[in-house]
Amino acid sequence: MQSMLVNYHEVVAVLLFGIGFATILLHPNLVKKVIGLNVMDTAVCLFLAAKGYIAGRAVPIIVDGVQDVEVYINPIPTGLILTGIVISVSMTAVALALIVNLHKKYRTLDFDEIIRLSKAEEV
């Protein structure tokens, strides 16, 4: 229990990931599935940010000629988070564009109904 209080960032990230995953699994609405995917992505970004932070260290910008590695935070998790955010925004835009096209064609956002209608078209 004590480690959960110390690592509350990680606990929150896992809870957010679970909420997003449950949203994807339980809701038939495609927009809600995209929102669940975004919540999961945010949880991963939070987890990486929490793991990349080291208390007492500074951002990796060399000031006053200090070159010791032990003084700075590792910049790689931050770069991964920024890349993940860009990918998430792009994925959300593409997914929503596809959802708009599916809604124009089938007049519903219910995933199960879209599958049923598409199978009826094939016959």
The CATH architecture is Orthogonal Bundle
Query: Based on DSSP secondary structure assignment, what is the total number of beta strands?
Result: 0
Q: Indicate the overall shape.
A: elongated
In angstroms, what separates the terminal alpha carbons? Answer: 57 Å
What is the N-to-C succession of helices and strands?
A: HHHHH
Give the helix level as a range of percent: over 70%
* CATH fold-level label: Helix Hairpins
**What portion of the residues fall into strands of 2 or more residues?**
under 5%
Number of helices: 5
Unreliable parts = none
Sheet with the most strands, sense and barrel status: none
Instruction: State the name of the first-level CATH class.
Output: Mainly Alpha
Which radius of gyration do the C-alpha atoms yield? 21 Å
The chain-level structural class is mainly alpha
Counted up, domains total 1
What is the residue-mean pLDDT, rounded to a whole number?
Answer: 91
